[in-house]
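Changelog-linked ticket: flavin-adenine dinucleotide example.
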Amino acid sequence: MTGEATDYLIIGAGAVGLAFADALLDEDPDCHITFVDKHAKPGGHWNDAYSFVALHRPSAFYGVNAMAFASEQIDTHGPNMGLYALASGTEVLAYFEKVMNLRLLPSGRVAYHRLAEFKGRDDTGTATVRGVLPGEETRITVRRKLVDATFYQTTAARSRCCP
Ligand SMILES: Cc1cc2nc3c(=O)[nH]c(=O)nc-3n(C[C@H](O)[C@H](O)[C@H](O)COP(=O)(O)OP(=O)(O)OC[C@H]3O[C@@H](n4cnc5c(N)ncnc54)[C@H](O)[C@@H]3O)c2cc1C
């Protein structure tokens, strides 16, 4: 078992956790942030999405503040013709990977435990994180806040009409 410490432990490297960390880096310039996420890559549920899944609204209104996901592209065909393009799931994942690799990690104030599951926290505020693959445990002392960025419990379930 290994040990480490952080100011904010964020459970979930999806859109919500990434946006929170992005804002925190500017709002609290001295803080340290640690992510824990079961997926191998940032982007949350988009890692599990069907290949045809896309954003519901233009990418200009999606993502984190510090890194634009906007595209001035207007769709020229299909049901979205004449409107701002909707990003595909693959594009969303590529964007969130850039947010992690080009914005958050290079700050030197962010740690990222991928393929790792938050298991709970004891009375002293120390969290336990277990690796999904090797099963190794890490104990993380949380100096300020434990941030649950899994709150919305997003799933893309099959409809009942299409088993
Ligand atoms: C098809 C589809 C299209 C959408 N289009 C839009 C759109 O156009 N605009 C918009 O604003 N929103 C849209 N949404 C809403 C969507 O919910 C958000 O875009 C966003 O991706 C949700 O992010 P999240 O961080 O809340 O959750 P998630 O993406 O679910 O991330 C949560 C993460 O937490 C991790 N996790 C959970 N429990 C643990 C644990 N115990 N330990 C470690 N990790 C854990 C999971 O592995 C996951 O990676 C869409 C949703 C869907 C399904």
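Closing comment: Example verified and attached. Strands lie at 2-11, 33-36, 110-113, 116-121, 126-131, 137-148. The radius of gyration is 17 Å.
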